[in-house]
Choloylglycine hydrolase family protein (Levilactobacillus tongjiangensis), 327 residues
Amino acid sequence: MCTSLTFENSRGDHFLARTMDFAFELGGQPIFMPRHQTFQGDAGEFTTKYGFVGAGRNLSHYIVVDGVNEFGLGAAALYFPQYAQYEETAKAGKLGLAPHDVTAWVLGNAKSVAELRDLVKTIQILDVPVALLGLTTPLHYIFSDPTGDTAVLEATSEDLHLIDDPVGVMANAPQLSWHLQNLSTYGTMQAEERPLHDYLGLPLKTQGPGTGALGLPGDYTSPSRFVRTVYNKHYSIPTADIPSTLNLLQHLLDTVTIPKGVKLKADGKSDYTQYRGYMSLDERAFYMEPYDNQELQRVVLTDEMLNDWDTPVEYPLDHTPHVSHLN
C-alpha cells in the first residue's frame, strides 16, 4: 500500500511525494525516458512525446510507477484493491492501456493536469496482468503540476475522468470521495493544546502539548494514513527553498512509512515502504530514497538529456546506509 501528498513551499515551488509500500520486492530504480519512445505495452503498443524521469523497472518493457516530466507534470500510481474496475477491450477509437502502463503514458503525453483532463477521455484501462506479479494490478493515480492543480484518476467504471483533489493527499482504498468525507470525523483536531476542565471538583493536570491531536489515528490502514497525512501537511511550518522542503517531506512521510515486519498480510509476508519518491515539479527533478539508505538520490532532467539522448538510462541506487563520522 502507499501514501502520497503534494506540497507548495513559501517560494511557490511544487512537489509530489509518495511512499511505495509493497510486500513483493519490486526492484525499482530511477529511469530517464527520452522523448518520442514506443512502448510495447502489455495491452498493446503506445507512443510518447515528452521526456520524463521516475521510478520503474525494465521487464518486457519499461514500467514506470511515478515520476515527473519535462513540463513539471508529476504522477504516481497507488494500489486500489477491490475498487478498480477495468474493461476487457477498448472501444473503437480509444487506446487500451494496461493499468501498470498508465503512468508512463501520462508522463509521456500530457503537459499539465488541465490537458490530462481531456486526454484521459481517449483511453481505456484494460484488465491485463503484469508479468512480474502474475495479476492485474488494481491501481488509481494522482497527478499534480507546477500550477498546484492536483487530481486523481480512479477507474471505477468505463467512463474515465479526473477527480479534483482539494487536499492534495491520496492513499489506497476506498475512493477519494470516501476519504474526503471521512475527514469530517477528525475536523475538530488542532495543533494547539486543548484546555482541561475540572471534573467533579477534581482539578486535572495537563498532559502537555499535543492534546489538540487526541484521536488522530496512528495505525497503517489507508484511512488512517490519509487522515494523518492531511493533518500533518496542514499544520507543518512552511519552508522557503527546495532542500528544506524535501527535508520536510521526508518528515511528513515518516509518519506513514512502514518498517518491515509491523504490517503483515494474510500469507505472513510484510508490507513495508520499499522506497520514497519525491518529484520536484518546478525543478523537473526526481529524488528517490530506498528503505536501507535514507539519503536522497537525485536525477534532474537537463536540456542535454531531453534534446540529445534517445536511449533510456537506468540509475542504480546506492543501498548502503550512510553515516557521517564527526570525529
Notes: The CA atoms of residues 34 and 190 lie 46 Å apart. The chain has a mean pLDDT of 95. The chain has one domain: 2-192+207-314. The helical segments are 102-109, 113-119, 176-182, 222-235, 242-254, 303-308.
